[in-house]
Amino acid sequence: MPSRYRAGGWTAVLGRRCALLLAVPPDSPVVAACWAQVDADPLELLAAATGGALRGAPDFAIAGQGVLLLRGAARAVVGDEEFAGAGVSTWREVPLAEGVGAVTLVAEDATGPALPLLGGIVAAGELHVDFAGTAQPHPAGRAPDEPEARQAQPIASQAAPPEQRDEAPEQPVPPVSTEPAQPDDAPAPSALGQPVSSDVVALEKPTSDPVLAQPPPAEVAVPDQRDEVPPEPTGMTEVVPGGATTTVAAVDAMVSALAQPASGATEFIPRDATQVITHLDWAATPPPPRALAPGHVLAVRCSQSHLNPPEARQCRACQGPIAEQEIEEVPRPVLGALRFSTGDLIPLDRGVVIGRAPDASATAQGVRHVLKVPGDDISRTHAEVRLDGWRVLVVDLGSRNGTSVTPQMEVTFEVGAERAVELAPWAYVALGTGGTGFTYEVTG
Q1: Is the CB of residue 408 less than 8 Å from the CB of residue 391?
Q2: What integer pLDDT is reported at residue 97 of this predicted model?
Q3: How far is CA 127 from the centre of its chain?
Q4: Segment 128-181, tens digit of pLDDT
Q5: DSSP states along 305-364
Q6: What is the structure's pLDDT at 286?
Q7: How far apart are CA 443 and CA 3, in angstroms?
């Protein structure tokens, strides 16, 4: 059964592996970023939805790969249970039991009937996700298995009654005639191997000696397709370098539809199936990202001139609102600081390598801070903090006793070896088992 949605003021993003209900309009840049990650890991989709500024991030509900992630007014219904994202400063994580395929993500303003949605982007207030019913591509271009050809072949009993089949071998075999059969003497042979009409074999006294089935004469053989004249081109396809085939008419129609919005429209919010498909085409091909100078980021400012990611609606430093404005390119500011339990305070102007005897060459992230921390439970090169645009990531470098993250007012989770996890402001990171760790603090 396909997934379904009900109209509303949020935006639903549905892929093959993940689903998202987000409290932003469909034309928000955040939606395009989420669409690019909708078939990735749920944490990657979470990073796209928050944009690296969790305190100013919109409310959301994410479902995928055995987990629910909820924030703010978003809710989720799984069977008879309902989960809410309210009451936490970051997000709520709910593990899903194996085999759960149907989840309903709910906002506060869902209206109207439930409409089917195979995938894409649509303005919605509720999204019922059925991953078992979501369309999946056939691997390597293979079509689904078809019934075997023998199922369409006639069985022997359909061609002749048993009595005639038993008696036929006792008759002498007449010589094979080399003259072509006249069109009026017998029905034309079937190229598909379909049985002869039952009216022919039902005669009690055949007018001539029975003749065994012979191969079709040469006059009716299927011609070699290589000798056929290829059809005239229809103008519908065009071969481009690399072997790809582009449907020119479909592309022209899509570009024309996008370039000429409906008269009087002030914003693009899909309300019916036609608009959903058009908006999906738009979201699948977002404009190329703007090229930035090394070490630069795109930013907006709050009323106190604090720099923030372009999608932020609340300042990451002072929590003040951010008004609509032109996005500017600036050198990336210091993203905060790491306050260690040992008393060290490391500014996040670049990455940090942490360990009992850290090796700065263990990673390939350029010049970084190198911090030695004591403890037998700490590996020589234990973990690394990386900066990616506005994002602050922690990576466990294959340590013996592991690394864990505890978001503010949330449950602790382990960081997999060699896996990058984005840190929300004020999250605590524990290194090993002896109490050593640090807090990610955001400054102006």
Answers
A1: no
A2: 80
A3: 16
A4: 987 664 444 433 333 444 444 444 444 444 444 444 444 444 555 555 444 544
A5: --EE-TT-SB-TTT--B------EEEEPPP--EEEETTS-EEETTS-EEEESS--GGGS-
A6: 46
A7: 43
Pick from 121, 419, 57: nearest CA to 284: 121
Q: What CATH number is given for 337-441 in this structure?
A: 2.60.200.20
Threshold 0.85, pTM exceeds: no
Contact 313, 58 (CB under 8 A): yes
371 three-class SS: strand
What residues does 121 pair with on adjacent strands?
13
How far is it, in rounded angstroms, from Cα 378 to Cα 358? 10
Phi, psi of 123 (to 5 degrees): -70, 125
C-alpha to C-alpha distance for 183 and 371, rounded to whole angstroms: 94
Instruction: With beta carbons less than 8 A apart as the criterion, state whether 407 and 424 touch.
Output: yes
Which distant-in-sequence residues (6+ apart) come within 8 Å of 403 by Cβ? 382, 383, 394, 396, 414, 415, 429, 430, 431, 432
Domain boundaries defined on the chain: 3-135, 298-330, 337-441
CA dihedral 319, 321, 324, 326 (to 10 degrees): -30
| CA distance linking residue 165 with residue 209, whole number of Å | 13
Q: What is the pLDDT of residue 231?
A: 52
State how far the Cα of 264 lies from the Cα of 67, in Å rounded to an integer.
Answer: 42
> DSSP secondary structure string, 139-154?
GGGPPPP---GGGGSP
CA distances from 282 to 20, 217, 304 (A): 18, 57, 36
Angle between the N-to-C axes of helices 273-284 and 248-259, in degrees from 0 to 180, rounded to the nearest 10: 100
Reported as a pLDDT band with limits 50, 70 and 90, residue 80 is: confident
Give burial (CB, 10 Å; 0-12/13-18/19+) of 433: middle
Q: At what angle do helices 29-37 and 273-284 cross, to 10 degrees?
A: 80
What's the CA gap between 37 and 143, in Å, rounded? Answer: 26
